[in-house]
Amino acid sequence: MKKGTLLVISGFAGSGKGTIVKRLLSEYDTYSVSVSATTRAPRPGEVDGKDYFFVTKEKFEEMIADDEFLEYARYVDNYYGSPRGYVDKMLDEGRDVILEIEQQGALKVKAGRPDALLMFVMPPSVREIYNRLKKRGTESEEVIMKRMHQGAREADVIEKYDYLIINDDLGECVRNVHETVCCSKYAAVRNKELIDRIRSEFNDFLNV
């Protein structure tokens, strides 16, 4: 069984990355979403092992010490992290595992896992980012402008991602993401086992 691809998706606020992930899960049977661990209490209806792995602060810090996270961060006195063991299990089963995380976490994953595929999702223009945030009707103008300033900072490191995906037409965007994941499976960095096997076969054939 061919190992799955670790797909890391980030994007500006209003880019639609969450909707893209939901469409990938509903339209293709190869994807799974990584379940994060957190120290916050479960909210009504949340299920341990499905929505999050709910752990104590002490347990989470033990996991940090044992290098059990691909990435982790602390927000408002709670930890959140992507458990390495869970992700690797899904990848070994041939699943393409999606991590929908912010840039800092994405670059941490890439540093530790060079074979991870990083995608940055964005609308076709800055004005469209603003329009989408405004259209939500859930945030004040002050909060929207804070998100726009955050977007400007995020734009400074987009080149560190492998691919830039424009979300103008949602259906086309989802197809582009899936096709990019499919093509990426042929990249040399994601076929180390095959390369090592071919080298070994050459050595055996030539009696090196």
Output the keywords:
single chain; about 210 residues; 4-stranded mixed β-sheet; about 45% helix; 9 strands; 5-stranded parallel β-sheet; 8 helices; alpha/beta
**Strand ordering within the main sheet:** 2-7-1-8-9
- Can you give the mean pLDDT? 93
Distance from N terminus to C terminus (CA atoms, Å) equals 29 Å
Question: Helix share of residues?
Answer: 40-55%
User: Treating each run of at least 4 consecutive H or I residues as one helix, how many helices?
Assistant: 8
Describe this structure in words.
Helices cover 45% and strands 20% of the residues. It is of the alpha/beta class and 208 residues long.
Task: Indicate the topology.
Layout: E1 6-11, H1 17-27, E2 31-33, E3 37-38, E4 53-54, H2 57-65, E5 69-75, E6 78-83, H3 84-92, E7 96-100, H4 103-112, E8 117-122, H5 126-136, H6 141-154, E9 163-166, H7 170-184, H8 192-205
Parallel strand pairs: 1-7, 1-8, 2-7, 3-4, 8-9
Antiparallel strand pairs: 3-6, 5-6
Helix pairs in contact: 1-7, 5-6
Brief account:
With 208 residues, the chain is α/β, with parallel strands linked by helices.
